[in-house]
UniProtKB/TrEMBL annotation:
The keyword Signal is annotated on this UniProt entry: yes
Entry keywords, A to Z: Signal
Protein name: Thioredoxin-like protein
Coiled coil: none
Length: 189
């Protein structure tokens, strides 16, 4: 029963964020053509860098703030993460349009704020539904599902990645990654 439920959850998640749509360089909105380069982080079709302030303002705060405020990670795990996470830069690929990103990204920011993580070491990039950006930020990262949270060491080497949904909880998965414990996301070989 648990396996069936887990499979169904994984399948629904896959369908919700893997749906591929062809997008053009222009988006039609209320009979007005808007170039994607004119989109802002407040637009569902936006792709490019995005900040915590972007999430906390405009229409993004409608889903960001409740998830951010409701997230209560285990204190013991937060303390362990805090001892190890400064060794890593974090690069996040997410979709403003994606339910999994809307679930996990507020939690990630809440966790990082609780440990006072240096935000200069964090880069968050919104991708379109085809998992690309007009700037090509996703090149060399093989982004197939979102959110993808990549942990990079001081030498610029990718250590591991969280993909789409936690294996345990977000904080437990991150703890396993930053303490070099065995960890595989659902799509790892």
């Amino acid at each position: 029963m648990k396996v069936t439920f887990t499979f169904l959850v994984a399948l629904l998640t896959l369908i919700s964020c893997k749906a591929q749509e062809k997008t053009s360089t222009n988006t039609t909105t209320q009979n007005t053509v808007v170039s994607t380069s004119e989109l802002t982080p407040q637009d569902n079709n936006y792709s490019g860098k995005i900040t915590e302030e972007d999430f906390k303002s405009g229409n993004l705060k409608e889903w960001f703030t409740p998830g951010y405020e409701a997230y209560e990670p285990e204190e013991e795990i937060v303390e362990k993460i805090n001892r190890n996470i400064d060794e890593y830069k974090i690069k996040v690929f997410m979709g403003i349009w994606c339910s999994d990103s809307r679930r996990e990204i507020p939690k990630l920011y809440s966790l990082l704020d609780k440990i006072d993580y240096n935000q200069d070491q964090l880069e968050v990039i919104a991708v379109d539904r085809s998992k690309t950006t007009t700037q090509g930020y996703e090149k060399n990262y093989d982004i197939q599902f979102v959110p993808t949270i990549i942990f990079i060491d001081k030498n610029g080497k990718e250590i591991n990645r969280f993909v789409e949904f936690p294996q345990e909880t977000l904080e437990e998965d991150i703890l396993n990654i930053v303490t070099d414990q065995p960890y595989k996301n659902s799509y790892a070989d």
